[in-house]
Write a structure and sequence with these properties.
By secondary structure, the protein is an alpha/beta fold. The chain has three domains: about 5-60, no CATH class; about 75-135, no CATH class; about 150-445, no CATH class. The chain is built from 19 helices and twelve strands. It has helices spanning about 5-15, 20-25, 40-45, 50-60, 80-85, 95-110, 120-125, 135, 150-160, 190-205, 215-225, 235, 255-260, 300-310, 310-315, 330-340, 365-370, 375-395, 410-425; strands at about 65, 75, 125-130, 170-175, 210-215, 240-245, 275-280, 320-325, 350, 400-405, 430, 440. A ten-stranded mixed β-sheet has the order 1-4-5-6-7-8-9-10-12-11. Strands 2-3 form a two-stranded antiparallel ribbon. Helix 5 crosses helix 6. The chain is globular and about 85 Å long.
């Protein structure tokens, strides 16, 4: 083996380059284990010798995981804290002393109202702790905003040292920390700066064709520079959402950094993404609540699609879309469809609205609670009616593709096929694939003139 040239050793190593767990598990119900795998043959091979390490290095970093730092670093500075700082003036760092004077002036102008808790959200300032800020580090209530860990800079140096930038194909940014400062108006600016720093740092050192963000809904909204648009998130008990963005090929670093089109701090506007995939997890727990059908799940995906639709250049790049959820409400699917109507460049659509074969949610009595299975399937059927109506009225190009991952289940495949056949009966030409399960192709040659297509299901 040692007598073989490196080129042959590399070819041997590629046979151990299995698909990353962030790819194979993306459609599973979201958890904190998206990037974990029990099988790591390439890593074991890289430990055999220095030579094998050198050969496997480019393959080892095709898929990169970036975990956000979990340490809270922000202090809410109010009038009461400033008073405490006054007793420690000689011990304050230069940074803390600057904060003290700035906030002291602010509170003097607001008179005694600064000490009223009702004014905290307006008068409070969030200050990031710096090295040497011993007073701020001792404050009992230190807050968390998304930020990269100190190890990212070391990783970036490692990537540069071994010229791995163009070998990195995929980046997964993930955290299980919940962002909890949505009610504090003064937190918006620090959050925006922190998130912009995350994406600018990542794209400065890496140029992946695929980016996945895995985070609790509130945190994901912050990372995507959008809102949750829901007061009912508690009812859905969604611990984690996934979003996937894919560009057809990486941009050259100089071109990407100099092109004004890609200098927006918002992730979805950073690159000419051609695919957007979203996994919002399960809505099962919400079915146990009173008048469940009135509840609103987090709407980050809807808001992202609407924003893309307004950005003409970016929306024209998007040709593929996928959505995964476990019994989402038809109101949610309707909102997504409305947004998709505004992005005419879509050519590939994929949906999964029921649990996959790996998911035993329906057998979990605790999660089911008082939910009725009939309600699950009512929402599922109504959602597919909305999808069928969308496929019937949308001016999709010839050869456009629709796929349903629910068709892996024989009974559900029969139901989905019935909806697609109904479209065909109404004159819309959709040809079922004889090779791929649950896939249909738009074929204008099969269209029949039977009158206008009904828009049943679209609210």
């Amino acid at each position: 083996m040692e007598a073989l040239p490196n080129e042959l050793l590399f070819q041997i190593a590629t046979h151990l380059d299995t698909e990353a767990p962030s790819v194979t598990k993306f459609a599973h119900e979201p958890t904190t284990h998206l990037t974990e795998s029990e099988s790591t043959p390439l890593k074991f091979l890289s430990l055999v010798s220095r030579r094998w390490r050198k050969v496997t290095l480019p393959l080892l970093f095709h898929y990169v995981r970036i975990t956000l730092d979990e340490e809270p670093q922000w202090v809410p500075v109010d009038a009461r804290l400033v008073d405490s700082m006054q007793t420690q003036l000689t011990k304050l760092s230069n940074h803390e002393f600057q904060i003290y004077h700035k906030m002291r002036s602010k509170f003097k102008s607001s008179s005694t109202f600064a000490y009223d808790e009702a004014f905290d959200d307006l008068l409070i300032n969030l200050c990031r702790i710096q090295d040497g800020d011993d007073f701020l580090k001792a404050v009992p209530h230190i807050l968390w905003l998304p930020h990269l860990s100190s190890t990212f800079d070391k990783f970036a140096m490692f990537v540069a040292q071994y010229d791995l930038k163009h070998h990195v194909k995929s980046v997964v940014v993930h955290t299980d920390k919940e962002y909890g400062l949505r009610h504090v108006s003064t937190a918006d600016a620090p959050l925006g700066r922190a998130v912009a720093d995350i994406w600018s740092s990542i794209f400065q050192h890496l140029e992946p064709t695929r980016v996945v963000v895995a985070a609790p809904p509130a945190t994901l909204a912050g990372l995507l520079d959008t809102q949750m648009l829901s007061a009912d998130a508690w009812a859905f008990d969604m611990k984690m959402h996934y979003m996937e963005l894919i560009q057809p090929r990486p941009l050259e670093g100089q071109h990407a950094n100099s092109n004004p089109q890609f200098q927006n701090p918002t992730l979805i506007l950073q690159r000419p993404w051609s695919h957007l995939g979203y996994n919002e997890g399960s809505s099962i727990t919400a079915y146990s609540t009173y008048e469940y059908h009135l509840k609103q799940s987090p709407k980050m995906l809807y808001l992202l699609l609407v924003r893309l639709a307004k950005e003409v250049e970016s929306s024209h790049d998007l040709t593929s879309f996928s959505f995964i959820g476990v019994f989402p409400f038809v109101t949610n699917i309707t909102a997504i469809i409305r947004a998709l109507h505004k992005i005419p460049s879509i050519k590939q659509l994929s949906f999964q609205l029921a649990p996959g074969p790996e998911n035993n949610a329906l057998d979990d009595a605790k999660r089911m609670g008082r939910a009725q299975r009939t309600d699950f399937w009512l929402e599922w059927n109504e959602s597919y009616k909305v999808l069928a109506a969308y496929l019937g009225v949308l001016d999709l190009p010839d050869g456009a593709e629709f796929s349903s991952r629910d068709c892996r289940n024989a009974q559900l495949a029969h139901e989905v096929t019935a909806y697609m056949e109904l479209l065909q009966q109404r004159g819309a030409g959709w040809r079922k694939s004889t090779v791929e399960q649950g896939v249909w192709y738009r074929e204008y040659a099969l269209d029949r003139d039977v009158g206008p297509l009904a828009e049943a299901g679209v609210v």
